Amino acid sequence: MRARDNPFRSESILRVRYRLLGIEWDQLLGRCEQLHYRAALVGPCGSGKTTLLEDLEPRLRAKGFETVWLRLNQESSLRERWSLSKQTTGQFLLFDGAEQLSWVAWQFFKWRTRRAAGLIITTHKPGRLPTLWKCNTSAGLLSDIMAEVLAGSRFTPPADLFRKHKGNLREALRECYDLMACGAHDQTARSVVASFFSDTAPCPATVSP
Amino acid sequence: MTELSIELTDDRTGFAPGEEIRGTITWSTETPGEKIELRLFWFTRGKGTADASIVETIPFNQPSPHETRPFRFVLPAGPYSFSGQLVSLVWALELVASASKTVVRREIEVGPDRREVRLESVASKVSAAKSWLTIKTG
User: What is the DSSP string of B18-79?
Assistant: First the structure.
């Protein structure tokens, strides 16, 4: 399958937005205001923290905040980690990857950004700021996302996909990409191919017309 | 509301590097102060982060509310359109009306045979050769 046709290509995955369950967006923003707009989105890798932060942004802008993005990942250099907090007075900071800062760097960052209008971070563990929302995943959520992305295309995922990736939806969807790419996504196709090349099945080339 | 369309001459969507792309664009808009421009660009699709590059832009100055205008681009020598399992590179024309945030896109193929280049993995070629050999030798 061509990369451009693969339903699990990155542009399709990026279109999937965060599914807020058990709360409305207005309530979440209200909770954020109660926390004086300094809060954390907490969750393991691939649980949707960045997606949720992206979806919060337009809602914060609608309230009149000027948002600024800060991003760190495992490849970020020491200089990048220490030079994050520039002039931020009055701006609302959306900081993706706050767990990449050491304790000392985090304290320095908090002090430097004390005059920002707001600060929401994503982090793997709670503690750095009050938790605004805990991102969780489930096998059901993975199924829903796959259905949205597939939009009718046929795909039979491995039974243990969610468990195999320990709830990391990003990695599970990347495996779906690979399965689609090499054509191993269809249980029926897999069975036909397997029986074709098995020792007990007659080789079609030897069957008399 | 703004409506946009891109028509390619002879409805042709395959081109060789260096060839001309000709056609017409049509718009119909009720949005005051609408700005219309046509972009020739390529982008990647696949497993990883997408990449993109705008090669040329044609602005259509002082657009009236309903109009059709011709356009012409000369394609560069590369990159070619290609598709493998991990990544595809896609060429496209994109017509943008910025005030109403309306966009319409038309994908084309650019390659030596006026088609995208298909990349096959080495593993799949070896596997196919083995299968053929198995059938032939019984």
Answer: T-EEEEEEEEEE--TT--EEEEEEEEEEESS---EEEEEEEEE-S--SEEEEEEEEE--S-P
- Judged by a CB distance cut-off of 8 A, whether residue A3 touches chain B is yes
Tell whether A117 lies on the interface with B, counting CB pairs under 8 A.
no
When CB atoms are compared, the residue of B86, B135, B138 closest to A3 is B86
Nearest chain B CA: its distance from A127 CA (Å): 31
Residues A14-41 have a mean pLDDT of 96
Tell me the domains of chain B and their CATH numbers.
Answer: 2-137 (2.60.40.1930)
Note down the domain range covering A41.
35-134
Q: Are residues A95 and A109 in the same domain?
A: yes
**Taking residues B10-21, what's their average pLDDT?**
96
Q: Is any Cβ of chain B less than 8 angstroms from the Cβ of A103? A: no
Q: Which residue has the higher pLDDT, B136 or A100?
A: A100
Give the ipTM: 0.76
| pLDDT interval class at A86 (50, 70, 90) | low
